[in-house]
Amino acid sequence: MPSKRIRLAQRRKAAGFTQEGLAEQLGVERSTVGRWESAETEPQAWLRPKIARVLGISGDELQTALDDVTVIQAQPSERVNYALENPGSADLVVVAYLHERLRRLDESYDQASSTGLLGPAGHVHGQVKFLRENAGNPRVRRALYEVEADSATLMGQLVWDVSQRRDHYAPLTYFDEAVGAAHHARDPSTASYATLRMSFVALYGEKNPGRGVMLAQRAAEMAKRTSPSLTGLSLLHVAEGHAMTGAVKECEDALRKAETQFDRVSTDDVAAPYYTVNEYNRLAGSCYLFLDIPERAEPILRMTTRALASKKKSQAIALGNLTLALLRQGKRNEPWAQDINDRLLALMAAI
Q: Which of 47-61, 222-236, 296-310 is least confident?
């Protein structure tokens, strides 16, 4: 449900600032201030003293304003409410409404905090699962399985993010649920994507590149007949898993196979927006960092960071990798190295 930090907004107005004016004083984007006030995100710890100083309040007063979150009751859909009270009555219109709510949450993933998205996403996921378990119409049940596959995948992502990648069991449980729902819906692309997400947990959480490669390869096989984009994206993570073990040949073979998928992508491929040259370069740069070849990673990552401006979470990862590539080459004192560091800190404050 929508939320507001009313006290924080009042403090800003009392200090004589619009959201844009406060953002300019702090060196952040206006949308960042908007997300603070809508309780989607919180300011980073290092930025809070400056916020308190600009607003003319103490650190404790700022913390109180941040903690004071008012939940705004959204106007519910009468049709969905009726279906939840009488689950056998759910129809395709109700499914479409829930799918649209989920789509909007999913599209916010790269801009909003995972903490802010987790509650609304869990609410939708619970409703979808409840209606699917009680659906009487086979067509409605299959459509709900499709939505459940997507909602379980999003929940797995969010839970893992919020746990700071420490909780592996809960995300894998959601991803496994997503694969099962996708099989019921006969949707190999969604099953592939959920499996690919499992490989992320193995690669970046469990630090198990062997299992990560196996899962990413399985995802590529699932997607092979339906989505060249997902196939390519999965192969990029096969490459990264090999890079983690220092297997140069296997890594570069997987990168070449991933690159060939670009020629097969069509406008009918629903995953096409996610498999771009920028994403390819971001992962290729990461591979060469794992292989300890920073001089090859640097130009790839430098080209990628600005192109990812609209995907703040991906851009933050690319900037972090670029900083690491520079440090490994002993370039920390060059002027543009400081500029990259400043951009990374500003981005961290915005997500």
A: 296-310
> How do the residues of the chain divide into helix, strand and coil, expressed in percent and rounded to 5?
75, 0, 25
Asked, for residue 226, whether it belongs to a domain, the answer is no
**What are the φ and ψ backbone dihedral angles of 91, each rounded to 5 degrees?**
-125, -175
pLDDT given at position 305: 55
Residue 52: its H or E element: helix 48-55
3-7, 20-24, 28-32, 145-149: which range is least confident on average?
Answer: 3-7
Dihedral angle of Cα 242, 244, 246, 251, to the nearest 10 degrees: 30
Q: In the structure, what pLDDT confidence band is assigned to residue 286 with cuts at 50, 70 and 90? A: confident
CA dist 224 → 24, 59, 188, 261, 269 (Å): 48, 54, 9, 10, 12
Cα 26 from Cα 31, distance rounded (Å)? 12
Our count of domains for the chain comes to 2
CATH code of the domain covering residue 23 = 1.10.260.40
Domain extent at residue 63: 3-71
* Interval 320-334 mean pLDDT: 56
Residue 299 resides in a domain: yes
The token duo for 228 is 């060249």
Collapse the DSSP code of 293 into the 3-class scheme (helix H, G, I; strand E, B; otherwise coil) and give the result: coil
pLDDT in tens, 40-81: 788 988 899 999 999 999 988 898 888 887 755 445 578 888
CA geometry: angle 294, 328, 201, nearest 5 deg: 70
| Helical ranges in 185-245 per DSSP H | 188-200, 209-223, 228-244
Residue with tokens 């379980």: 152
Mark which of 71, 103, 123 sits at the end of a domain. Answer: 71
pLDDT band at 171 (very low <50, low <70, confident <90, very high): very high
Q: 292: domain CATH number?
A: 1.25.40.10
In a domain, 267, yes or no: no
Domain for residue 297, yes or no?
yes
> What residues pair up with 3 in beta bridges, in sequence order?
71
Residue 73 DSSP symbol: P
Q: Does position 25 have pLDDT exceeding 60, yes or no? A: yes
